[in-house]
Amino acid sequence: MGIEDILDATFKAVSSCEVAAFGDTNSRLILRACHEDNVRREYLNALCDQAARCFRVVDTAVSFQSDIDDAEAEFNEATLVSQGKMTVFVRVDFTSPDFLCLVCRTPQDPSNLTSIAHDTLQKINLVQ
Questions:
Q1: Do 103 and 85 touch, CB atoms closer than 8 A?
Q2: pLDDT tens figures, 57-108
Q3: Cα 12 from Cα 42, distance rounded (Å)
Q4: Which end of the chain is more exposed for a tag (fewer CB within 10 A), N or C?
Q5: Which of 63, 117, 125, 48 is nearest to 94 (CA)?
């Protein structure tokens, strides 16, 4: 099973999923993605920029925490909710530029969606 297969399975399994993407915040590129037909490359590029900004904010918050080990997983994800969309970004750890992004048209349970995203990213890391 390759990266595209893993993303496709997640894309199909998540209700109202618009985008399931794997990217790199250093290069600011979406490396692989499954998405609806109307999603354009510019939108995917914007998601990558958004992931980089979100993790930069999270990393800044971490620098002010004295007890990081207790909530390490929380520093490797970001959830954004906007008009009719929920976007989740997850990464393996703060040193990794690799991330997974899920965009859904209707609000989801954030903890469930981040769990799915972490599981998907873990599967991708096993095939790389």
A1: yes
A2: 888 776 666 555 555 556 889 999 988 899 999 998 888 899 999 999 987 8
A3: 22
A4: C
A5: 63
